[in-house]
Write a structure and sequence with these properties.
The complex is a heterodimer of chains A (about 100) and B (about 425). Chain A has about 100 residues and is of the alpha+beta class. Helix content of chain A is about 25%, strand content about 35%. Chain A has helices at about 5-10, 30-40, 40-50, 90-95; strands at about 1-5, 10-15, 20-25, 55-60, 65-70, 100. Chain A is elongated. Chain B is an alpha+beta fold and about 425 residues long. In chain B, strand 7 and strand 8 (about 240-245) form a beta hairpin. Chain B is globular, with a radius of gyration of 24 Å. Chain B starts with 6 loop residues before the first strand and ends in a 7-residue tail after the last strand. The chains are: A alpha+beta (about 100), B alpha+beta (about 425). The interface of A and B includes residues 12, 17, 19 and 57 of A.
């Protein structure tokens, strides 16, 4: 079944310099496996259109995926020319991604 | 005097400089706290403080210090308050707090922690951690502050200070230090230092942990955000933390809110570097105990790094931002045309702005033009070009808003720990009723 990530997961973005961190948590722990399969670093990089490297950390203990997106904030909060200099809205952008889930 | 106990209740009364004040007063009144931390210092704030200090040697600390402490000190009743509101001038922050305590008639021992200002000992030709270019190539350097660790706060805690004011200290260290002091932890004990650092990381954004910045109506509902309660943690000697908030306050504490904050701004969950420990969050468990009570444990740690991170502020120019609205059919095309006109004219003067269209095409959208320029006059030019669209641009533009501000950039470097020497001094305000 195809579904919008927003239907099964919540997310939070943070920033450190020019790096955005985005963590994604399924509402139901059993969807963690779906996220691990579907929400690859490459899928996230493509969806957000960031130019830098995206690294995915799997945290099975917390049922969380954590994405570290380098060079994704136009230089970072202090000198960025973007409207959202922190990239706070990236977490919500990510939740519009469609993925395949098992049920 | 050190009194170790088996459990400590630590609260967070501010997660940033502009945070609400009354939730912290509520925590002091009803929270049965052992210590309250106010985290009010963002990366760039300290560089702005240095600018103010250059103009006036009595300034440079957090501008809202007086408003915040005048609201909170009468509620503290000797619950120690730890805060980085000293910013670029902890000594002046201490003096201001002493003056305030006298006005309020409060007996107070104020500790001021200094030593984070390392502008006189960094090598400006050293490469920035961010891009490898020499620090001084980014722009005129105006500040350099090392992230001090929990060890810098221990003398003030041992001396029984009521208010501890610091400049740059790593945010989690503001929490770890009082936990270590009260629980008798050794700062050379990585498992406990890791636990205390994790608690600090969870608490440091205040309302983030109690359902602030979490609500998504229909998906993640949070009650009472207009009266959000701020968090506290009960931490035991083993480092297990039980997170809670006061009854009757708004907000929500759950496994979901706590997990979002646990990973917030963490660039490596296996190795989060702080001045106190290399924190590993991979084994952490977060469990709901009952509504609005969550237990967290399982942080691991490796010994602290031999270097301290230094945040270096530099003058990065002047930023202009200007917007104009277009609506109805073809709105996006008109907004894009407006952007091309502005970019063409600014380009002739050597300014190449970032232009973008925000909003819904064919309903209402705004052209946004932004640029960083070397001088404030050039930044004003950017704003004037967008305003001029009123009579020189496409049809139907409205709602121009413009702003300019000075830009302070931040880059980082490292210093050997030995090059940084924290110091503490005290300001006493004797009580009116004090007996000799």
């Amino acid at each position: 079944m195809r579904t919008k990530l927003h239907d099964i997961a919540h997310a939070r973005a943070g920033d450190k310099g020019d790096t955005s961190t985005i963590s994604v948590f399924p509402y139901r722990d059993e969807h963690y496996a779906d996220l691990v399969r579907e929400l690859t670093a490459e899928a996230v990089r493509r969806h957000l259109g960031t130019r830098g490297e995206v690294v995915r950390h799997e945290l099975p203990n917390l049922h969380a995926l954590h994405f570290v997106c380098r060079q994704s904030l136009e230089g970072g909060v202090t000198t960025s020319l973007a409207l959202d200099t922190h990239g706070k809205t990236l977490s919500s952008h990510l939740l519009s991604l469609e993925i395949e889930v098992s049920d | 005097m050190t009194t170790t106990t088996t459990s400590v209740r630590i609260g967070c009364g501010a997660g940033f400089a502009g945070d609400r004040i009354e939730p912290a007063a509520d925590l002091l009144d009803r929270g049965d706290l052992d210590v309250l931390v106010l985290e009010c210092l963002a990366e760039r704030t300290i560089a702005l403080g240095h600018r103010r200090r250059l103009k006036d040697p009595d300034q440079g600390y957090e501008p809202r210090l007086r408003a915040r402490l005048s609201a909170l000190l009468p509620h503290a009743r000797r619950v120690p308050i730890v805060s980085n509101m000293g910013a670029a001038n902890p000594t002046a922050a201490g003096e201001a707090t002493r003056a305030l305590a006298r006005e309020l008639g409060l007996e107070l021992r104020i500790a001021v922690v200094t030593g984070d200002d390392v502008l006189d000992r960094i090598d400006l030709t050293a490469p920035a951690l961010e891009d490898g270019r020499p620090l001084q190539d980014h722009g005129p350097v105006i500040s350099a502050n090392a992230y001090l660790g929990a060890d810098a706060l221990m003398p003030a805690l041992a001396a029984g200070a009521d208010v501890i004011l610091t400049g740059r200290v790593a945010d989690p260290s503001l929490f770890l230090a009082p936990l270590a002091h009260r629980l008798g932890w050794n700062l050379d004990d990585p498992p406990r230092v890791a636990a205390g650092t994790m608690v600090g990381h969870l608490l440091e954004c205040a309302g983030h942990l109690t359902g602030g910045y979490f609500a998504d109506p229909g998906r993640k509902d949070v009650p009472g955000l207009a009266d959000l309660g701020f968090p506290f943690a009960d931490v035991d000697t083993a480092g297990t933390a039980t997170i809670g908030k006061l009854p009757g306050t708004g907000g929500l504490i759950s496994r979901a809110t706590v997990r979002e904050q646990l990973l917030y701004e963490i660039t490596d969950p296996a190795a989060y570097l702080t001045p106190d420990v290399v924190l590993d969050l991979r084994g952490v468990t977060v469990e709901d105990v009952r509504p609005d009570v969550v237990r967290v444990r399982g942080a691991a740690g490796r010994p602290r790094p031999g270097t301290l991170k230094v945040s270096v502020g530099y003058q990065a120019g002047h930023r202009a931002e200007a917007e104009i609205s277009y609506a109805g059919p073809n709105a996006r095309r008109r907004a894009e045309l407006a952007g091309e006109i502005v970019a063409t004219r600014l380009g002739r003067a050597g300014v190449h702005p970032r232009t973008g269209v925000i909003g819904t095409p064919d309903e209402e959208c705004r052209l946004r033009v932004a640029a960083i320029t070397p001088t404030p006059e050039r930044a004003d030019d950017v704003c004037h070009e967008v305003e001029a669209l009123y009579t020189n641009g496409p049809a139907g533009g409205g709602g121009v808003r413009t702003r300019t501000d000075e830009v302070i950039g931040i880059v980082s470097t490292l210093l050997p720990r030995e090059a940084v020497t924290p110091a503490t001094h005290y300001l006493e305000v004797p009580g009116a009723h004090e007996t000799a």
